[in-house]
Design brief:
alpha/beta, 9 helices, 55% helix
Amino acid sequence: MENYDICIIATPEDAAIAETLAGSIRSYRLPKGIRLPDPELDYRSIHVDSTGSEFDDAVKLLLDHTRYLVVICSPDAKSSEAIRSRLTYFRHFRKTEDIVAVIVRGEPADSFPESFIERKVVQHILPDMRVVEREETIEPVAADLRGDTPARRRQLLRYETVRITASVLGLHPDELEQRHRRRRNQAVLALAGVVCGVLLVISGIFLRLGLIAREEGRIAEAQTQKSLEVADRLTRELPELFADNPQALGYIQEAIDQAQAVLDRIALGEE
């Protein structure tokens, strides 16, 4: 039986999200200079169990050979017997720290399996000094992949990938996140420079197309308009991709402004 660093369990309804998370973790590369508490630890051997199958000996064997369990939490997961049985079995021989909850849909109270939610009776002192007991619900600290937009969901996926990887390797998430952020900023700034150059080249091409269309009449007006529409879409969508990096966004916006000025002149027939 193969040993796994992580087993991600999910309902069939959340299978796509589970696979996306698994792919993100597998493709993550540790920043240089990271020293692991145990050099033999890894995080890239991942199994995704999202079939919703019955809990049998094969599932037990899988969990027996898994170091960390990642539970995809959603309203479907809360009511899933497959999720409940796997989580209950894993809890019997693993520490709480070896289980990671990842909420992907719904509110926490509607998405966490019942065994994740702890209820405690807590004493409160009222203003008149009477002591009363109240039951409080304590929800687990969970990774959160919920986002209102695709860009926000991508941002959360990158962030939670780092946090989950740190947990599996026994590292402090802040240390890994800071190194990851520095490495990513360098890569994004390099990419931003390339994108700026591409935008300027594209604006030059469209300028040339506009001149040819008017001077020689060999390019149809509709074709030129389509090119302008493609450029306009590019200038609208690129800032969203770099929304979480203000420094790179500044370079992108500057190039877009220059390219847009050329496009506007073409559209008005001034070139």
